[in-house]
Write a sequence for this structure.
């Protein structure tokens, strides 16, 4: 099956007892056993739930992975990855322009726990490999990055950090049998498997906030981890059952239902975002327009190689700084001023004061996240209406 077919059919077999074309939502905490230990493979819903398993099977197929573990949020999924695969004394290497919540989790929860993260300021494979030392067991990549939409070369970075790790600690025992020396994780929330398949490019794990494009309708919080190999998934699955953080069946249903239209939604997100980026590039009120699908983007060639579409996010920097950004954002009507992204409805966000407020100012400025920067999550409304909305919002900036 190809992508759009998998999205609709995997984990969605008709209900065998009634023939219901859409399988029921299994709202149950437990399962009745014929005699102690005599059951149909289901004992308790933290451990197994058919609605969750359907979603996990579908996500694993879409990313081309060996398996998937779903969580109650993207950050719960991240927590599972760090806790299940790392130990105090280990270190992580990441590129500095990260989702704010990931940065907060690494700095405020895991650094005190004993896990240090070093952040690269340059996107090149050599810059990330240079930060690898004998304690490094994970590389965390977000591409496109948020909100500056830089691209990281997944295949190039995976190869460079693995070479570096091997040369530093050739005899280091892995934490669990079959785990790679350095686990390469890609947060694929922005691109989705419709536009980018990190496991095929050499990543070991893909992380998702299913809250965003996968759910796609701004009505559910969820997360998931997809692993290339069973050995990498196994400790995360163990953690999922041992520590919880699992999504409920209704949430799994909503995400799975959203995924059915992912292929067609992503095409429209890309088309609308390119249209808005091209319009914005012609307006003098913007000092900068960032979109991977524009030939002026610094990583345009890598985007063409690594992704099949520029995505639905457009970042603009207003010449008038903070005051202009605030005026612009309070005037949009279709673009709702809100955190989050990836829904069918367009949203506008001010990272410096909203999603990235937990990132210290000096770090923000070093990576170019200035006060005039505004992030657009371009929805799938009519593009003419979206352009008209932004045009009227620019008046008075
Ligand atoms: C939203 C987001 C997360 C966190 O996911 P939640 O579902 O909000 O917990 C992680 N990474 C990226 C890139 C995100 O956009």
């Amino acid at each position: 099956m190809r992508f759009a077919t998998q999205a609709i059919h995997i984990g969605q077999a008709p209900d065998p007892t009634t023939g219901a074309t859409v399988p029921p939502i299994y709202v149950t905490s437990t399962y009745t056993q014929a005699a102690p230990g005599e059951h149909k493979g289901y004992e308790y819903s933290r451990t197994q739930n058919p609605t969750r398993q359907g979603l996990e099977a579908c996500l694993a197929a879409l990313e081309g992975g060996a398996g998937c573990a779903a969580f109650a949020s993207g950050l719960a999924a991240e927590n599972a990855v760090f806790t299940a695969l790392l130990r105090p004394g280990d270190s992580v290497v990441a590129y500095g322009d990260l989702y704010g919540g990931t940065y907060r989790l690494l700095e405020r929860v895991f650094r005190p726990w004993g896990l240090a993260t070093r952040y690269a300021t340059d996107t090149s494979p050599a810059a990330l490999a240079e930060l690898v030392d004998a304690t490094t067991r994970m590389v965390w990549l977000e591409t496109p990055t948020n909100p500056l939409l830089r691209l990281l070369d997944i295949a190039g970075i995976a190869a460079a950090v693995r070479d570096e790790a091997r040369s530093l600690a050739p005899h280091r025992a892995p934490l669990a049998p079959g785990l790679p020396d350095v686990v390469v994780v890609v947060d694929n929330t922005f691109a989705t498997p419709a536009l980018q398949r990190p496991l095929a490019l050499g990543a070991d794990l893909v992380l998702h906030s299913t809250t965003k494009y996968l759910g796609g309708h701004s009505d559910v919080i969820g997360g998931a981890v997809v692993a290339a190999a069973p050995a990498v998934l196994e400790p995360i699955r163990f953690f999922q059952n041992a520590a919880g953080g699992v999504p409920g069946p209704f949430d799994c249903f909503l995400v799975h239902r959203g995924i059915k239209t992912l292929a067609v939604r992503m095409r429209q997100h890309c088309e609308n975002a390119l249209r808005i980026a091209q319009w914005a590039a012609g307006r003098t009120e913007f000092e900068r327009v960032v979109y991977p699908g524009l030939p002026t983007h610094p990583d345009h060639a890598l985007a063409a190689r690594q992704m099949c579409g520029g995505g639905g996010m457009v970042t603009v920097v207003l010449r008038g700084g903070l005051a202009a950004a605030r005026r612009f954002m309070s005037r949009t009507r279709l673009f709702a001023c809100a955190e989050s992204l990836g829904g069918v409805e367009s949203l506008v966000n001010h990272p410096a004061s909203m999603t990235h407020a937990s990132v210290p100012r000096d770090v923000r400025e070093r990576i170019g996240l200035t006060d005039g920067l505004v992030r657009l999550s371009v929805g799938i409304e009519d593009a003419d209406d979206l352009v008209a909305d932004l045009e009227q919002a620019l008046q008075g900036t």
